[in-house]
Amino acid sequence: MDQPQAAPGGGASEARDKTPRTERGRRTLRKLLDAAAVEFGERGFHEASISAITRRAGTALGSFYTYFDSKEEIFQALVRYMSEQLRDHVTPRVQAAPDEIRAERIGLESYLGFVREHKEIYRIIDEAEFVDYESYRRHYETTVERIRQRLEAGAARGEIRADVGEIHAWAIGGMNVFLGMRYGLWDTDSDISEIARIANDMLANGLKKRD
Amino acid sequence: MDQPQAAPGGGASEARDKTPRTERGRRTLRKLLDAAAVEFGERGFHEASISAITRRAGTALGSFYTYFDSKEEIFQALVRYMSEQLRDHVTPRVQAAPDEIRAERIGLESYLGFVREHKEIYRIIDEAEFVDYESYRRHYETTVERIRQRLEAGAARGEIRADVGEIHAWAIGGMNVFLGMRYGLWDTDSDISEIARIANDMLANGLKKRD
Hints:
Two copies of one chain form a homodimer. The first copy, chain A, has nine helices and no strands. Chain A has helices at residues 23-47, 50-57, 61-67, 71-95, 100-117, 120-131, 133-156, 166-186, 192-205.
């Protein structure tokens, strides 16, 4: 399952390097992955077909096999691609935050915004639990690892409590994923910036009564 | 999808009432549901079979059809059954807690313990997202609703901040589910009481530095 970190979601099998070498190739690969997100998101892994993906992408069937050997392989690449898209959406916003508490608030708000724009992310990541457990687990492990690093950096700068670590990061990751399901996926009307403000206030100050 | 609240996970179709009326019937139904948990947990919905469930339960195939019309129907009943088993495991422990902050700690610790004993719960609840979305959503909505009620009761008793509500409850639910996946399902060595203590301390006091 170990793949070299390649072009967007790029799968490189042991047999041959399928990483596109030209800008045009990278564009085709992205078109295939975007089409796969719609196809798997709408129809699920088992009902989805390679021919429908290439039809949606407007590419020839041959292009598909330039980059992927099978439906399993593009699904695996798609999980990584979505994970990277999410990271690329959230990370610059979080890095621009003035401190770690506000970084977590911005991280949640931008995650909720991402979910509203990419509703298929839940179905795809969650289906990976059944199609390719390795990808499923890696998505959460890398996402939570980024939270852990943020927390520890914030603690080192003296912005938050000093004892933060992996347990806190998993707790925050779960909080975000559930709020994303409830207020990003199911309920598309509520004010995500208000949701993020309220959740972040609990994260910052806790449930205890203020004195 | 609205079912009357019946015997354990009991499904009652519109056509006929399949709720067991005798203790022996309730025992058979529970045997079938326990066997279904193992079968669906090990093989997944699509690979699972009714005959394997009755074999595991040590019951005749006819008993299956006394209570269920299809594999879909027992899967749906199983999701409700697991949801109820979880509630029956956690609720009395939580209710014995001296205050709401400790109730959340005990809730998390007993949830982690439940996951260690019922590892199949993740696979079954998560597969419901694809097999029966209504059951999937109801499981989380009822679980989170219990948290919300606990929080609001704790606030009314003056044990925690006064402004708690649904957003806080979804955040806590997600926290628990992710900690359960990481430390209940994947890692079976770590000390769950220590995990619960650390997560609860963040929940109680927040990420801010203590003065």
